[in-house]
């Protein structure tokens, strides 16, 4: 049985996959991140690409590559950990993506680490910079915005 806990140490909150479900509205197969850490206005989330994910089927046969749109969704889920204003009783809706860049290919066996930072918040709107790395090599980056609606 997978662990289902959140731990606090030195001001850093560590969240496993089951506990992510208390924050994010996503569920399998669309819950794409495996674990996260929160430290104030910064979130660090990780996802290991196993190779059997739905988004790799047919993208591309014999040369599986994580699609850019999935990398954007992973950044979004990582970012949404910073907009948990209602204790998990909220739904974040994408309102924008700016300056998204894909720098390196992500393949099965890679572990992505996403670093997201809250840059602005006004009413229900949140603005976040996020980037994803494999072995400290930049793979994707962008500016994301969300509108949060209470569930």
Question: Your description of this structure?
Answer:
Helices cover 11% and strands 46% of the residues. Strands 1-2-3-4-6-7-8-5 form an eight-stranded antiparallel β-sheet. Strand 1 and strand 2 form a beta hairpin. The radius of gyration is 15 Å and the shape is globular. It starts with 5 loop residues before the first strand and ends with a strand. The model has no long low-confidence stretch (mean pLDDT 91).
- Rg of Cα set: 15 Å
Detail the poorly predicted runs.
Answer: none
Q: Give, in order, the helices and strands.
A: EEHEEHEEEE
Overall pLDDT confidence: 91
Q: What is the general shape?
A: globular
> Count of helical segments?
2
Distance N to C terminus: 28 Å
Major sheet attributes? 8 strands, antiparallel
**Beta-strand residue percentage:** over 45%
Strand order of the largest sheet: 1-2-3-4-6-7-8-5
What level of helicity do the residues show?
Answer: 10-25%
Please report the total strand number as a whole number.
8
Structural class based on helices, strands and sheet pairing: mainly beta
